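User: tokens in, sequence out, please.
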């Protein structure tokens, strides 16, 4: 049975390590904040100028002035710090963020990422994803394996405008987990969702990948 959104976030949270500085993208990645392992110190960073985000607020306890880069209400921690967006991007571009968890529209077999624009549709802007994939030490992408119409999202080549080329280190979908030991290697299937078969994954994937 494919993983649901919360299970995807739980799986992505397994990539966190004690002491990591982490940036969470819009959508499913934001849910990772709710699944940080107990006892693990992870500092969440937001492009709009916040270091040390807490989990999402309970209903009725939202503060409209306290938001993340995706304009979702969040909570603060005793150690939270606030600063300008320029300082925030200085952290990202300077290589000080250990891990970024992002959503995607498409991922190619070479690790290319498209996650910011669909041609012909109105967009507010490219956001910080291009800086994140260029400056962060490891990029994990979390997405549904196929589009709503059944078309492949993990494919030989991205057809949408790229966010970055050869930047994805791990891909977690509702069907499986693919990882690359280096950015010159092929993606390797390392884990499947319960009840999902290799045949199903192959039928819904046009990208090249290897198996153990």
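Assistant: Sequence out:
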């Amino acid at each position: 049975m494919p993983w649901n959104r919360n299970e995807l976030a739980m799986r992505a949270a397994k990539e966190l390590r004690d002491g990591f500085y982490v940036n969470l993208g819009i959508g499913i990645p934001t849910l990772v904040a709710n699944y940080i392992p107990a006892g693990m110190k992870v500092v969440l960073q937001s492009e709009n100028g916040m270091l040390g985000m807490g989990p999402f607020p309970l209903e009725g306890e939202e503060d409209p002035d306290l938001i993340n880069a995706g304009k979702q209400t969040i909570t603060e921690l005793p150690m939270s710090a606030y600063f300008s967006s320029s300082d925030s991007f200085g952290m990202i571009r300077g290589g000080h963020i250990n891990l970024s968890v992002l959503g995607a529209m498409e991922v190619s077999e070479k690790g290319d990422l498209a996650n910011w624009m669909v041609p012909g549709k109105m967009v507010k802007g490219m956001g910080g994803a291009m800086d994140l994939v260029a400056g962060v030490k490891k990029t994990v992408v979390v997405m549904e394996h196929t589009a709503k119409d059944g078309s492949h999202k993990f494919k030989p080549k991205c057809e949408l405008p790229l966010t970055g080329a050869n930047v994805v280190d791990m891909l977690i979908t509702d069907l499986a987990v693919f990882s690359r030991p280096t950015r010159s290697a092929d993606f390797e299937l390392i884990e499947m969702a319960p009840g999902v078969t290799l045949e199903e994954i192959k039928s819904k994937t046009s990208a090249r990948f290897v198996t153990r």
